[in-house]
Amino acid sequence: MDLDVIPHARPQVSDAEIEAVVAALRAGRLAQGEEVAALERDVSAAFDGAYVVAVSSGTAALALSLRALELSHGAPVVIPSYTCNSLYAAVCAAGGEARCVDSGAHSACITRATVAEAAGPADAAIVPHTFGYLADVDGIKALGQPVIEDCAHAFGGTYADGARIGCKGDIAMVSFYATKMVPAGEGGLCITRRESWARRIRQLRDCDACELDPHAFNYKMSDIHAALARARLERLGRDVDERQRLAQAYDQAFAARSHRVRSGASQAVCYRYLVSPDGDPDAFMEAALGAAITCRRPVFRPLHESLGGRCPHTEQFHSSMISVPLYPGLTEGEVDRILTVLPNLCATR
Helix 58-68 to helix 85-93 angle, to the nearest 10 degrees? Predict the structure, then answer.
């Protein structure tokens, strides 16, 4: 009997979430409006009254956060090399120049040491975090540049001291893309405690509601997406807990081939579960797909391979680590198949 393929990611949508979107549609709330304002209030309350601005995507949130800092044209912005292309796109959209930084020797994240080695006093901002692993924001901030926390993979998590992810940087950006922690299809947030930055982001997100500004654009989030995001926020804590439950089971099954186990790195939210097969990673992914399990490399290609520079730790991670499916929508049968098949493939390919 043919097995249904387990996708690498699969968003869940409950009846309550469908009803939230239907209610917005029935009320005629399609464009940016009351649902967006309510989403901003909900998140502001969770972040102790911080200013929150909803925008069209996580990429837009980062670009607007950088614009709010009033960086000069061509100013360097420090981003991980081991990340998605969207960070590069956001830096370019904001008029900056992306400067890639290596991961740590034992961490998928950039570290204070790798940032200090590559960054300089002219850098306009630093953007840490990746895959739910946490960079040392306090240490990186001590280097003197503004920090924009990339919470796309870690929203809903906390630091070891109990602080919410996103509250330690100067600005935090969130993505509501279909496979993120709050999957609303599209959308994003900027979170900051500086009113002037929030005001500037609001000005820039709607080019038809301000004086002519060459940097303003249509970065608005729709009420339909906001309604879904608000409904999804209600189960964010449960989703974080479920990811952690699954991660602990994966830790036992994959043991030393698990990046979490091998590195001991802090992962506030298990957004990506990374493993290192003994043999060829491409052969591992092909064999996994033969067992109807979709695995992928965490990123398309490290950014420094296109932009230049040396990031040896990133190169080592990219050549060896594969992301296996882990998300709340997995059935128990799918989890059993993953834990029965993939650890053995790690050891034989």
Answer: 40
d(CA 64, CA 58) in angstroms, rounded, equals: 10
- Give the C-alpha separation, 42 to 36, whole Å: 10
Q: Which residues contact 162 (CB under 8 A, 6 or more apart)?
A: none
Best CA proximity match to 269, nearest among 109, 127, 68, 146? 109
Q: What does the chain come to in residues?
A: 349
The H or E element that residue 293 is part of is: none
Residue recorded with tokens 């608005």: 220
DSSP state of 222: P
Tell me: pLDDT of 138 over 70.
Answer: yes
**Considering only CA atoms, which of 234, 232, 258 is closest in space to residue 247?**
258
Instruction: Give pLDDT tens digits for 250-299.
Output: 999 999 999 999 988 879 999 999 999 998 999 999 999 999 999 999 99
- Contact, 332 vs 325, CB < 8 A? no
Alpha-carbon distance 292 to 95, whole Å? 43
Give pLDDT, residue 274: 97
Give the integer Cα–Cα distance in Å for 333 and 335. 5
pTM comes to: 0.94
In the chain the domains, ranked by start, together with CATH numbers, are: 15-233 (3.40.640.10), 236-348 (3.90.1150.10)
